[in-house]
Write a sequence for this structure.
């Protein structure tokens, strides 16, 4: 890779911007393509989205018959879990196994302790402060689990004002309806609020914390990959 392209790539990674490199195999011509750059030819734009969505490199045949190698450079996946409750433990474990950098957020020190979450980052802060500092990006999933509006709602407000790819909140249909009413009163419209998956997770009849965690991770994966 040419020095100027490498410098640009490193800058994009430091800014947590998704980018793909495209190399024409016949002569080694290289370029970097961002998923928001619609100035590129349609096939390049579509190929970029495909490799970034799948996180897998691939060879693409251009309309003129030339072969191009596309390589994905995505920011790390992050999972921000608000509420250090029982369900958060299997969610953190499964999230780590799925390749996420997991952070547990809860101001209650009795819940948010390294002893309960030994392998992930724990922040004993108010959710809005922690979420603002962590700045969710397009490779971030946000999950709120406390059932407490004082903790969940401020986190959801930050998430809704961010490009987070997934937002989910635990609670029954009645709880979610009340949540939407509160957030509507905060100025969010229906389209924005539709980003919240609530009740959280795929409907698989989950009962135990581990089963609920499976449903959450499955829904997150579907949103990320599909």
């Amino acid at each position: 890779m040419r020095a100027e392209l490498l410098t640009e790539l490193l800058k994009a990674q430091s800014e947590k911007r998704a980018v793909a490199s495209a190399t024409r195999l016949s002569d080694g011509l290289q370029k970097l393509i961002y998923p928001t750059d619609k100035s590129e030819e349609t096939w390049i734009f579509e190929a970029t989205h495909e490799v970034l969505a799948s996180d897998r490199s691939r060879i693409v045949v251009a309309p003129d018959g030339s072969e191009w190698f596309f390589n994905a450079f995505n920011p790390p996946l992050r999972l921000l879990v608000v509420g250090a409750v029982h369900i958060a433990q299997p969610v953190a474990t499964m999230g780590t196994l799925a390749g996420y950098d997991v952070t547990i957020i809860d101001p209650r020190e009795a819940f948010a302790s390294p002893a309960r979450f030994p392998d992930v980052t724990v922040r004993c802060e108010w959710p809005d402060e922690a979420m603002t500092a962590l700045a969710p990006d397009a490779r971030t999933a946000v999950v709120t689990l406390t059932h407490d509006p004082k903790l969940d709602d401020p986190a959801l407000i930050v998430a809704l004002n961010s490009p987070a790819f997934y937002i989910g909140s635990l609670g029954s249909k009645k709880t979610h309806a009340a949540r939407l009413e509160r957030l509507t009163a905060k100025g969010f419209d229906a389209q924005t609020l539709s980003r919240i998956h609530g009740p959280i997770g795929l409907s698989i009849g989950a009962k135990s914390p581990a089963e609920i965690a499976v449903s959450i991770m499955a829904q997150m994966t579907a949103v990320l990959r599909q």
Summary: Residues 209-225 form the longest helix (17 residues). The CA atoms of residues 160 and 188 lie 9 Å apart. The first strand starts at residue 19 and ends at 24.
